[in-house]
Amino acid sequence: MTVLFVLLTFATFIALDAWHQRRVRATALAPVAIAASEPEPFRPEPVWVAGFLTPDGLHYHRGHTWARQIAPDTAVVGLDDFARRLIGPVTRVKLASPGSWLRSGDHAARLGVGDRQAELVSPIEGEVVETNPLLEKQPGLATTDPYGRGWLYKIKTSDLGRNFANLFSGSLAHRFVEDSREKLQLELMALSGTVLADGGEPSTDYARELSDDDWRRLTREFLLG
Hey, which of 18, 30, 108, 136 has its CA 20 to 30 A from 1? Predict the structure, then answer.
């Protein structure tokens, strides 16, 4: 009887151990839900170029969008200060859907300001992997905090270096903004002096001073949308 009791006890321990091991394996193999996260906070130095905030550390497209690397194969995209001021306070945002493939220069975002709509183009080529969930309820972030919480989408590409090589950064970005400002100033002077502040500088709210037709023409011209 003693031998039988020992054998039964031993068998019970083996069964319990096998059951425990199955639970451990099941837990290890279970899918883990990963919540979408904001990019690492970007706190740039306040670099001002021709009156526009133009932080270093970003790569700028001639359509006034920017890209910033956040992973070896992924970048986050937004609009620059020039585009923000040209468009005006945004009230709605429509972005390319996750899974969409964009080429550099493709339409990637539509920003609404009242009855007006402006198109933004993608600065780089790749697959959209995430859009900014904050913009669903707070679309104004796209223009009130364009370099921070107002980012538009994340894009994954096989060659960030090649994509960035086609964009402006550093002193080239500064020159690009200076040229854009000079061109815009000439356009506004030709339209009406009411959109210019004293000294010939563009006023901070010049977008709302423009007629709908002029606003659409300028946004298409400078944003390439």
Answer: 18
Nearest to 165 by CA among 123, 225, 127, 128: 123
Q: What is the pLDDT of residues 12-48, one digit of tens each?
A: 444 445 444 444 333 333 333 334 566 766 777 889 9
Rounded to whole angstroms, the Cα distance separating 55 from 218 reads: 24
Q: What residues does each domain of the chain span?
A: 46-225
CATH 2.40.50.100 fits 46-225, yes or no: yes
pLDDT value of position 94: 98
Q: Which residue type, as a one-letter code, is found at position 26?
A: A
Please check whether residue 44 is in contact with residue 169, taking contact to mean a CB–CB distance below 8 angstroms: no
Can you tell me the distance from the alpha carbon of 33 to that of 13, in angstroms, rounded to the nearest whole number? 34
Pair of tokens at residue 138? 């707070």
